[in-house]
Amino acid sequence: MNASDAPIALDIDQLSVVFDTPDGPLSAVNDFSLAIRRGECVGVVGESGAGKSQSFLAVMGLLAANARVSGQARLGTEPLIDRPVAELNRFRGVKLSMIFQDPMTSLTPHMTVGEQIAESVIHHLGSSAEAARARALALLEQVQVTDAPRRLDQYPHELSGGMRQRVMIAIALACDPEVLIADEPTTALDVTIQAQILALLATLKRERGMAMALITHDLGVVAGIADRVAVMYAGRVVELGTVHEVLKAPKHPYTAALLASMPRIDDAGTGPLPAIGGQPPNPRRLPPGCAFGPRCAHADALCRSEGPPLMGSAPRAGTRSVACHHPVQGAHESRETS
Amino acid sequence: MSEPLLQLRDLRVWFPIGDGLFRAKRQLRAVDGIDLQVAPGEALGIVGESGCGKSTLARAILRLVRTSGGQVLWLGRPIEGWSTARVRPLRRDMQIVFQDPLASLDPRMTVGEIVAEPLRVHARELSRAERRERVIDMLARVGLPADVVNRYPHEFSGGQCQRIGIARAMVLRPKLLVCDEPVSALDVSIQAQIVNLLQDLKRDFGMTILFVSHNLAVVRRLCDRVLVLYLGKPMELASTDLLYAQPRHPYTQGLLAAVPVPDPDLQPQRLGGALGGELPSPLAPPSGCVFRTRCAHAVAACAELAPKLQSVGAGHEVACDRWQAIQTFGERR
After folding, report:
1. What are phi and psi of A16, to 5 degrees?
2. How many CB atoms lie under 10 A from the CB of residue A248?
3. N or C: lower Cβ tally within 10 Å for chain A?
4. Are residue B58 and residue B19 in the same domain, yes or no?
5. Does residue B249 form part of some domain?
6. CA quadruple A146, B17, B290, B215: dihedral, nearest 10
7. Do both B242 and B180 map to the same domain?
């Protein structure tokens, strides 16, 4: 399937998020634009505080009360920003679903797995209790929960972390969403279980033609299932492109440095890693100019005075864009692997 | 091999689990029969999924949990059964760095007090000025300026807190440094800094490192040898080069295949080869080979006899009786 021809399922346009705090306003997301087409998975990559979760919590209308959102996000033609909760609830959990990092705290401890899945089906689709239970069973089987009939009557604490995350996914899928936002869905899991969950998400995306946003800090995770990648740093998208473009030929020095600094399982090297110096900036004290400037080997006077805009053709529906005055030229010199 | 710094002989840590008033207590075998020799200056990685006994093994070596059987030999001397007072002088030579960098620092102590505390306990002969000098010197070695001594942990980022934790552990110049998931809680761009720091310290001080981690890529970078654990039992023990180039145990092969690589040409296929199933309950481990319930190569005989580590080549031991039969499966980079 050629995803670039598919209709846009989620269209985020110049989204910004500012939190009003006792110490003054704190800008968490700045001018975030991204369009995700049906059947497409976009990986949103960044470190803690890069704004990746806050962007999508804003889309879901789930931000804390002290947040101010500007810009727009549309599900198909329906605007999502500043919609009353009652109207939002016609979409949330129905056409637009989200799964979270911690499958323990995201499930209700006093309801059985079956009840939690059925609740969504009954509430949104008006199914009968029996139909909802049958649907819950079918969903559990679809997300490859072993021994599904017995699991229906179990409580979350009786399940392993991987099984809980599968249940979370089943709940998110209950009403056949058009868009699934997965916020670090495998970060709390063992690497073996992570691979299973990612394989499941890839299958679900393919079979259902869902649009998917996969939020993660791990470039290896996006390499497996994303079609495109948006790299965020200090509240902004700094690079956007296909997964091959971004990971094989990164143009932003941050992306390139991050890739180079990651120890790789298939790299027999034993010398020091080319680490990125310094640390991600405090959002209250962003440096002038490019936020990555102080950690960037290529930064010059221009970078320190002027923040580079995201340049490229049509950044939203977007092919390739980068926010850098001195993008990495030519092929990325990938490290020798054994 | 020079005299081992540390030897484990059939080391076991079993936790009794109460099942209520009337049922008999059961034993959770967190660590079950580990034999190991660690040479001075060696970096040994201990890997496996959560619940495999990695941390328990490391803590048992430090006597932070009680062992249930077997022996720990420190420089050739068995130390289990020693009183706390008798063990205390040894602690000077064994230190630990924890996973959560902020939680492992006392929020009410300044950084200077935190790093000086091991000296106050174990190096009482030092004067105040000497202590201060050692603290500032060690902080410099981990990349922190001298003026941090009067500040408190909450003022620092995760990566800096981990540097403080490493300085606290290294200030006594221990012979053994146990690192329990030291980079897992850190941001991606900070992990490489800490891995490099540990490499530098190892080169400069020559201490032995036990590196407990689920991050197999970091282990490959840092360790000389790797022990793979599953349900408290050793599955494979090999030099890092051999383990990653020619993993022989199906569990090792599955673990390595599950680690994502940031390459869209390779990673989608790797996802397809992921190890299925989940860790069984350690209270009801499978009979015979504990890994057999997730093993694609298991046969009926695997349920009968628990395989022991056996040598399959120089510096390479595998606890699988079928390792030769499945060899063709495992040639991975």
Report:
1. -135, 145
2. 18
3. N
4. yes
5. yes
6. 80
7. yes
Answer for the pair A179, B246: CB distance below 8 angstroms, yes or no.
Answer: no
A268: nearest CB among B200, B215, B241: B241
pLDDT the model gives residue A125: 92
Residue B275 lies in a domain: yes
Do B144 and B293 share a domain, yes or no? no
> A4 CB near a chain B CB, below 8 Å?
no
- Give the model confidence (pLDDT) of A204-225 as tens digits: 999 999 999 999 999 999 999 9
Nearest residue in A to B279, CA atom: A160
The whole-angstrom distance between B315's CA and the closest CA on chain A is 18
Alpha-carbon distance of A173 to B41, in angstroms, equals: 52
Q: Number of folded domains in chain B?
A: 2
Chain pair A-B, CB pairs under 8 angstroms: 157
Range of the domain at B158: 104-172
Single-letter amino acid, residue B234: P
Question: Do residue B209 and residue B296 come from a single domain?
Answer: yes
Alpha carbon distance A221, B231 (integer Å): 26
ipTM of this complex? 0.89
Q: How confident is the model at residue A337 (pLDDT cuts 50, 70, 90)?
A: very low
Q: Is A190 helix (H, G, I), strand (E, B) or coil?
A: coil
Reference B258, options B274, B247, B246; nearest CA is B274
Tell me how close the Cα of B22 comes to any Cα of chain A, in angstroms.
22
Q: Which helix (H) or strand (E) holds A193?
A: helix A191-208
Question: Are the Cβ atoms of B189 and A224 closer than 8 angstroms?
Answer: no
**3-state secondary structure (DSSP) of residue B213:** coil
Residues of A in contact with B261 (CB under 8 A): 220, 223, 264-266
Q: State the nearest Cα–Cα gap between B196 and chain A, in angstroms.
A: 5
Neighbours of B300 (CB within 10 A): 8
**CA–CA separation, B293 vs B277, rounded Å?**
8
Q: How far is A246 from chain B (nearest CA, A)?
A: 10
Any residues with CB less than 8 A from the CB of B129 and at least 6 apart, and which?
Answer: none
Residue ending a domain, among B157, B172, B187, is: B172
User: Is residue B99 one of the residues assigned to a domain?
Assistant: no
Structural contact between residues B102 and B153, judged by C-beta atoms closer than 8 angstroms: yes
The minimum CA-CA distance between B215 and chain A, rounded to whole Å, is 8
Q: Which domains does chain A have, with CATH numbers?
A: 1-95+179-264+317-326 (3.40.50.300), 102-174 (no CATH)
Q: Do A47 and B187 touch (CB under 8 A)?
A: yes
Instruction: Enumerate the residues of chain B whose CB falls inside 8 A of the CB of residue A285.
Output: none
Contact at CB, B278 and A247, closer than 8 angstroms: no
SS3 A117: helix
CATH value at residue B321: 3.40.50.300
> Which residues in chain B have Cβ-Cβ distances shorter than 8 Å to A202?
268, 271
A86-97 pLDDT, tens per residue?
999 999 999 999
Cβ <8 Å between A191 and B255:
yes
